[in-house]
Amino acid sequence: LAGTVPEEPRCTVERADASLTYSLFLQRFAFSRPVILGGVTDNSAFRALCTREKLLAAFGPFPVRLSTANTYSYRKVDVPFQEYVEHLLKPQDPARLGSDTLYFFGDNNFTEWGPLFQHYVPPPFRIPGTSPAYSFGIAGSGSGVPFHWHGPGFSEVIFGRKRWFLYPPDKTPHFHPNETTLAWLQNTYPTLPPAQRPLECTLRPGEVLYFPDRWWHATLNLDTSVFISTFLG
């Protein structure tokens, strides 16, 4: 499946560059709509530490906690990081349900992964009254998390490409919580009238997506991807 999952025909998420000031971020995006930020951070040093070889050397024997790739992610499975990379990091099987698909995203042990996160440069914007928490992930092509919502946050792609689908809080998407994003894209997305389609865009390395509080979002990794989110709780 690598390389066969398509990008969207046209990105419909607004973009901003390093000229965006904090006051304009608060005024235009923080509480109202998502935005893709380009050139606001330089994580080349962090990226150099996130190659397959470097991560396996640093974290291979340590356990990682995997979640099922459905909306509620109730089931957790602990495996050595090396086992995940060598045996479970593979393209999404379109026939598998989210509850049968294991995904490494979040649930990081900060005692073990903390030294890596110290090299990450987070986006320069914050929401007043919140504090940041990192969530690091690695996943195969065609994998992703179906529609869900939570508090605001940023997500940056370190390697690969990641396609995002977003709806505002008052517009609940039509989806099954145990259907993978890939299955939703293949089965439901083509039936949606243009007015019912989500905001969508593909993130590339170095780009950061900001999503406001309670916005519905689903993700789809177009390649084997490494990514990190900064949740504002």
UniProtKB/TrEMBL annotation:
SUPFAM superfamilies listed in its UniProt record: Clavaminate synthase-like
Gene: Jmjd8
Protein name: JMJD8 protein
Molecular function, one GO term: cis-regulatory region sequence-specific DNA binding
Domain JmjC, chain residue ranges per copy: 99-233
Any Gene Ontology CC annotation: nucleus
Superkingdom to which the source organism belongs: Eukaryota
InterPro entries named among the record's database cross-references: Cupin_8 (IPR041667), JmjC_dom (IPR003347), JMJD6_ArgDemeth/LysHydrox (IPR050910)
